[in-house]
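Sequence in, structure out. Go.
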Amino acid sequence: MPKRALVDHRPWLLLSIVSAVAYYFLTDNQLGGTWLILLKGGACMALAVYAWQRHDSANAKLIALYLLLCSLADMALELWFEIGGALFFAAHLAAISLYLRNRRIHLAPSQRILAALLLVATPLVCWLLSSSPAVGLYGLALGGMAAGAWISRFPRYRVGAGAVLFVISDFLIFARMGGNLVGVADLLVWPIYFSAQFLIATGVIRTLRGELKASTD
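Output:
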């Protein structure tokens, strides 16, 4: 990315990074619950605004909706875990819709196998880690989102990798729920999760903008 591009041309990306970093380092501070919740939600909210402003297509609006729902879920989790989970479930459905609208035409057998593995193994692991049928059901949407991202036409090493990182961050949360990896999860969940969202948002929008530029040349 060109020097000062974040500041001069991508202020919402910069704001998302600042919000994410501030939330991570101020979590144990006496800043106050309300402000921490707003910082947490602000990370994905800024990414949603970035997506909304950078492209006018229905695909861009879908990724913006996904990020908005994730932002609301991030904040809701601090107050009511079940509501946060329901919002994330809805976010994954929005992402699945986007990825299915943009399926890759030609898929290698290995790509099909990995997508199927993500779809099947994700809810199973979610259930095993949490011992909760509700979490296992949520895992169906999570796995569908990751599988859809992997078979979409968006770059796998950005959007696909971001979706897999999202799965990993949730695995850590559910492991913590079961009393495992508590210290590791506390340290790694947020950085992995935000990295996932940043990769997904920028990967989708850059692809759409690249196509728009190519069509006008």
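Check: Residues 30 and 122 are 36 Å apart (CA to CA). The mean pLDDT is 90.
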